[in-house]
UniProtKB/TrEMBL annotation:
InterPro entries: Diguanylate_Cyclase, GGDEF_dom, Nucleotide_cyclase, Rev_trsase/Diguanyl_cyclase. This is diguanylate cyclase. Pfam families: GGDEF. Keywords: Coiled coil. PROSITE patterns: GGDEF (PS50887). Residues 146-180 form a coiled coil. One of its GO terms (biological process) is negative regulation of bacterial-type flagellum-dependent cell motility. One of its GO terms (molecular function) is diguanylate cyclase activity. Residues 211-346 form the GGDEF domain. CDD domains: GGDEF (cd01949). GO terms for cellular component: plasma membrane. PANTHER family: DIGUANYLATE CYCLASE DGCM-RELATED (PTHR45138:SF9), REGULATORY COMPONENTS OF SENSORY TRANSDUCTION SYSTEM (PTHR45138).
């Protein structure tokens, strides 16, 4: 949240902003859930920010602001602050562990140095010993010093073992936080942020290796009409179903992502157009082959279909340009009657 919004929420203007949030949510027909309220605070507190612009776009397009929409926006725009806080917490724990280990190591160094001095003095004294009692005293002192060093070493080993396990736990926790921040909450596919990163990486790898890379964009046909007829919760059920089919097809190194509300994307590194078209047709046919039922009432929903378009990356083509061509192929599928797959290259040949 920008500093100006954070300041506002801790001053007398917070009540005015909160009332404005409720009024605007009611005007837009958005339920005042905690997540929606948080999103609207960001939106009205920083209307020119990325989240504010996206919410304005959704409202201008008269798209329904569903729970799935809220989850998608939160996954893309809100986790960054939470992720930063998680990293800060982990950093504080890591600093504490490193300080503890450093202290133990420093103490062990001092003990070793003192032990060395004790050995040197003992060597000098042994050379001058004339009776057994004096020698016994020296040996007793060496034994005590050795035991002290052993205890210090044991303490150091225990601290290192505890810290190693704690660092491993932190690493696992941060990796889970990173995965959560890059995952769409509704479908468990990669979210828009993760998709953007994967696309940039795939384009760069294709550029340096000279290998092919193909991007596909998929969209659920008549999804708005479906939502209006059956309700948004059932719409979410459809989104999860389509995502599950895509997820099974997205074997590594393929990447499947929820790109927008009912729009998905898949990245196909090092595959031919024929292989990609076969994979997309298999996805399309599997999705259309099932007659869905409403989970809450068992009402027959009928079949759901998708349209898809894909484009082969051209030499030195950016991810944005590739996405634009894949989108054009998707809309060609829509214009041709939906429930079909179209390649950008076939459009080029037709033109």
């Amino acid at each position: 949240m920008p500093a100006s919004v954070e300041t506002t929420l801790r001053g007398p203007e917070a009540y005015s902003l909160s009332r404005q949030v409720i009024d605007e949510m009611e005007r837009a027909g958005v339920w005042p859930t905690p997540l929606n309220f948080e999103l609207w605070l960001h939106y009205l507190g920083d209307p020119e920010g990325a989240l504010g612009r996206e919410i304005r776009r959704i409202l201008a397009a008269a798209e329904p602001f569903t729970e799935a929409t809220a989850d998608m926006l939160a996954a893309e725009y809100l986790p960054r602050g939470r992720l930063t806080e998680e990293i800060r917490d982990a950093g504080r724990v890591l600093d504490r562990e490193l300080a503890s280990v450093s202290s133990a190591i420093a103490q062990a160094h001092r003990s070793q140095a003192a032990y060395g001095q004790t050995l040197d003095k003992a060597a000098d004294r042994i050379g001058a010993v004339e009776d057994g009692e004096a020698l016994q005293t020296i040996v007793t002192g060496l034994t005590a010093a050795t035991r002290r060093v052993q205890r210090e070493n044991e303490t150091l080993e225990k601290k290192l073992d505890v810290s190693t396990r704690e660092v491993a736990r932190l690493r696992e926790h941060l990796e889970q936080v990173r995965r959560d921040a890059m995952t769409d909450a509704l479908t468990n596919l990669a979210n828009r942020k993760a998709f953007d990163e994967h696309l940039a990486t795939a384009c760069e790898e294709a550029r340096t290796s000279g290998r092919p890379m193909i991007l596909a964009v998929l969209d659920i046909d008549y999804f708005k009409r479906f939502n209006d007829t059956w309700g948004h919760q059932t719409g979410d059920q459809v989104l999860r179903y389509v995502a599950s089919v895509m997820g099974r097809a997205a074997r590594t190194p393929r990447v499947a992502a929820r790109y927008g509300g009912e729009e998905f994307a898949m990245i196909f590194p090092n595959e031919t157009p024929e292989q990609v078209e076969t994979a997309l047709e298999a996805i399309r046919k599997e999705i259309a082959s099932r007659s869905l039922r409403r989970r809450s009432t068992n009402d027959e929903l009928g079949a759901v279909t998708i349209s898809a378009g894909f484009a082969v990356r051209r030499p030195d083509e950016s991810g944005a340009a590739l996405l634009e061509r894949a989108d054009a192929a998707l809309y060609a599928s829509k214009r041709a009657g939906r429930n079909r797959v179209t390649s950008a290259e076939s459009l080029d040949r037709a033109a």
